[in-house]
Amino acid sequence: MEQKERLRYLTEEFIKDSADYKDMQVPEKPAEQRQVLRSLMNIRIPRPMSSHVLKVQDAYLKEHSIQNGIVTMEDIPVLRTAGNAGISVWQGDITRLAADAIVNAANSQMLGCFVPMHTCIDNPILN
């Protein structure tokens, strides 16, 4: 499956999965599909999803990361060292970081924002 096909498939699946947006039409333009997918991913309450959708999602996000370029720790200069630890500062798109986790300022339920396309920090993470 090509990246364009993954995007369309995921957009269709996330629309079907959404109670509030299940009647929405899939936009034709890929940029609009990405916007809809991003919004629906951000507002979806955590719950099980089909393993096939998850596999396609993983492939889509992996390819998206490769296309955007991945930043590793070796790419970020160490500004100061203290013992065995170093301090580095990097400014950029956090979704490009090769990291095991991104810590997000969440609400009291430890969930992100549920407002589509809101400018809070968790929405850009899925951009």
Molecular structure report:
The chain has 127 residues and is mostly helical. It has one domain. Helix content is 40%, strand content 7%. The chain is built from 4 helices and 2 strands; from the N terminus they run H-H-H-E-E-H. Strands 1-2 form a two-stranded antiparallel sheet. A hairpin with a 2-residue loop joins strand 1 and strand 2. Helix 1 packs across helix 3. The longest helix has 18 residues. It is globular, with a radius of gyration of 17 Å. The model has no long low-confidence stretch (mean pLDDT 86).
Strand order of the largest sheet: 1-2
* Unreliable segments of 5+ consecutive residues: none
The class by helix and strand makeup works out as mainly alpha
Separate helix tally: 4
User: What is the percent of helical residues?
Assistant: 40-55%
Give the H and E element order.
Answer: HHHEEH
Residue share in β-strands: 5-15%
So what's the overall shape? Answer: globular
Structural domain count? 1
Distance between the termini: 21 Å
* SS elements, strand count: 2
Mean pLDDT: 86
* Oligomeric composition of the shown chains: single chain
From the alpha-carbon coordinates, what is the Rg to the nearest angstrom?
17 Å
Q: What summary fits the major beta sheet?
A: 2 strands, antiparallel
Q: What's this entry about, in short?
A:
The chain is mainly alpha-helical and 127 residues long. It is 40% helix and 7% strand. The chain has four helices and two strands, in the order H-H-H-E-E-H.
